[in-house]
Amino acid sequence: MERNAALLIIGNEILTGKIRDENTPFLARQLFSLGIRLDRVIVCPDEIDVIARDLNELRRSHHLVFTSGGVGPTHDDVTLDAVAKAFDTPISRSQEMEWLIRSHFKERTTEDHLRMALLPVGARLIRAADISWPTVVIENVYVLPGVPEILRAKFQVIREELDRGDAFYNASVFTLAEEGAIAALLHELTRRFPKILIGSYPQLPGKTDHRVKVTFDGRDAREVAEAAEHFIAGLPEGMFLRRI
Amino acid sequence: MERNAALLIIGNEILTGKIRDENTPFLARQLFSLGIRLDRVIVCPDEIDVIARDLNELRRSHHLVFTSGGVGPTHDDVTLDAVAKAFDTPISRSQEMEWLIRSHFKERTTEDHLRMALLPVGARLIRAADISWPTVVIENVYVLPGVPEILRAKFQVIREELDRGDAFYNASVFTLAEEGAIAALLHELTRRFPKILIGSYPQLPGKTDHRVKVTFDGRDAREVAEAAEHFIAGLPEGMFLRRI
Questions:
Q1: CA distance A15 to chain B (A)
Q2: N or C: which end of chain A has fewer CB within 10 A?
Q3: Parent domain of B18
Q4: pLDDT tens profile B69-81
């Protein structure tokens, strides 16, 4: 079964340009390598109603949803409240989370720390031996933190439960031709290889050694290779640079 | 009048993790400096129906919408068709665009190049002396290219028409305290300064010299400074590192 996914990136800091979103590029590559089609990314502010509304739409239209951000102890960490709202389920203190928090902070544990133990009823926790904090999952929604290093560590564990041995395959061809000169050829290839996703990415003259990079993605490695070969064969004389 | 904005980033290449989105960070910073609140970013695939649906929703709920990507001559460049669909207006060949295309490509002009002259009826063109291509604008929607260098050059011109001398002001305070220890203080400040947007950004231990960066954004420079000063004064002994 083909699976699709959406990301909900929660963060005023990205919308105000203070912090660069590192998590979308990482998750996009990970999902591609798992053969899961990422269809949509939304960046929204730290507001419960907005997050809940987006989450409700995304969880119904996608097999998998990953949120990033808003899961700490401060006033702007409202993601879990929004998740509960989206699933119309109450929040209650998880004994497992409380134990983990108290073990970690010991006598420095504050009420604000313990706020992180308030989880939507029905959530499950994915734990890994070498990570302090578990990942909260409810139905098809994975709640991830905004800090990139922690998100990555947590995703390695989630990856195992998502991996079904599917994968996308890719071939990229670099050409000296400009887009107008290869548009007709590409159009023909989209008809000939309907299952292959073909992308055309122009570069400014002088910035790189190529003018256009053309990419071929698909689930069948042989078909991907065949599409790339047809493209190379159809290029105007002398316009082929390399293929990876 | 307070203005808000949304970005619609059109690009399979971002969803498959091939290319990093450089345009959101750039536009987020630009809009912040113009005092325009960026409320939403959507990344969607190169599909006419999806783009048209998203655009229709965004243009009705935001003062300004900026699209990025999908405006060249190849099969995956469907943004202008989607814009026409969203505004329920036909596409017709713009004489001004045709003239620009023929002047640029001269005898190398192809039918695919001329596809770029097909614009939604009702669109206006913003031109600048030193940029080859004008920016297409229809009502409150600015259609920008995906190539970051071109988007930036075009935005400098658009900036002039958007600039109303508004601005957001920011102060950032770096602390050695961890989030749990300052959550109550921050919560109190959000009540005391309801117009100031306060953000709290933890770092992993050992990665930077600080544990948490706290940011204060607002339209009133004095109020921003006051909120930051109250925060510094309320920090536990020895936890203040610096302010910028």
A1: 6
A2: N
A3: 4-162
A4: 998 878 888 999 9
Whether residue B14 and residue A32 make contact (CB cut-off 8 A), yes or no, is: no
Tell whether B154 and B178 lie within a shared domain: no
Q: Tell me whether residues B204 and A147 touch, CB distance under 8 A.
A: yes
Interface test with B, best of A10, A12, A13, A15 (most B CBs within 10 A): A15
How far apart (Å, rounded) are the C-alpha atoms in residues B35 and B167?
4
- pLDDT, tens digit (0-9, with 9 covering 90-100), for A90-120: 999 999 999 998 998 899 998 888 888 999 9
CB contact (8 A) between residue A41 and residue B41 = yes
CA–CA gap between residue A154 and residue A145 (Å, rounded): 9
Q: What is the pTM of this model?
A: 0.91
SS3 B140: coil
Binary contact (B12, A197; C-beta < 8 A): yes
Q: Are residues B38 and B151 in the same domain?
A: yes
Domain count, chain B: 2
ipTM comes to 0.91
Domain-terminating residue out of B162, B187, B208: B162
Min Cα–Cα distance to chain B from A114, Å: 9
> How far is residue B35's CA from residue B31's CA, in Å, rounded to a whole number?
6
Nearest of B154, B163, B80 to residue B123 by alpha carbon: B80
Chain segment A192-239, per-residue pLDDT in tens: 999 999 999 988 878 889 999 999 999 999 999 999 999 999 999 999
- B204, A150: Cβ pair inside 8 Å? yes
